[in-house]
Amino acid sequence: MNQTAGTTRIGLLGTGPWAVATHAPALAAHPGVDFVGVWGRRPEAAAALAGEHGVAVYEDADALFADCDAVAFALPPDVQAPLAIRAAQAGCHLLLDKPVATNVAGARELAEAAARARVASVVFFTLRFAKETAAWVAQQAAVDGWFTGRAQWYGSLFTPGAESTPYAASPWRGEKGALWDVGPHALAVLTGVLGEVTALTAAAGPGDTAHLILRHASGASSTVDLSFTAPPAAAGVEVSVRGEEGAAAMPGWGGALDAFGAALDALLEASRTGVPHPCDVRFGARITELLADAEEQLGRG
């Protein structure tokens, strides 16, 4: 295998729409990366994606791990977790998708495996890496006196008659709903500004709608409203905080491609310095703990 001097060899696991539209193009374009190859559960899809980017296709995930310094995941969470454990054991740094798992035991096992192997990890919470929203989170986190926050994430992914997207066909999204798919984004933003969540209360709404009330280590409280079954006219995303300085609303953000490139930068930095990133696998495991708590309270576990 040929490697450009000073670059990190990285492979991709996954061949779905997220991998096609975001992960593979970002890996191929990054100047600090040698995009080694692709593994997928559907060999024909893996071959097509690898061919599109001129990289190798792997029939065996462990063979990909052996050829890489790091691996990126675009897989359902409970497929991702055991494979990521094997990757960590092989010495690969981990660029994970959210949630890292949908069960607490799997998330904790993954975090422990990464710690034992001393590999760097970053979980791709999009809004913590998109330029506009990452800057907003950092700016608000530096301000004292926040009293409360709110995140509303209403989508129509599973609303009858709504326009279909490739993600609507995802079995795990259909089973777990907005709580597990976009809930991690909302929690990652609010904890980034208001601090760790110390208490959570959940209540169910219509369809898959979930309402969360959070208490944060800073003393602030926040609310989160999530749905994939909202009427199309009601769909939208809003995040804001309020406190002594007034109110601040999160701005919009660009596409995920640049955000994934920033997450890749963060992984390379963490692997080089040994300094954990705030959105590492331990943080990802904590998000899984919170969502599992909410799911149990909702009676959906």
From TrEMBL:
Annotated Gfo/Idh/MocA-like oxidoreductase N-terminal domain residues: 9-121
InterPro entries: Gfo/Idh/MocA-like_OxRdtase_N, Gfo/Idh/MocA_oxidrdct_glycsds, GFO_IDH_MocA-like_dom, NAD(P)-bd_dom_sf
Domain (GFO/IDH/MocA-like oxidoreductase): residue spans on this chain: 168-248
Keyword tags: Oxidoreductase
UniProt keyword Oxidoreductase, yes or no: yes
Protein name, entry field: Gfo/Idh/MocA family protein
Organism: Streptomyces mauvecolor
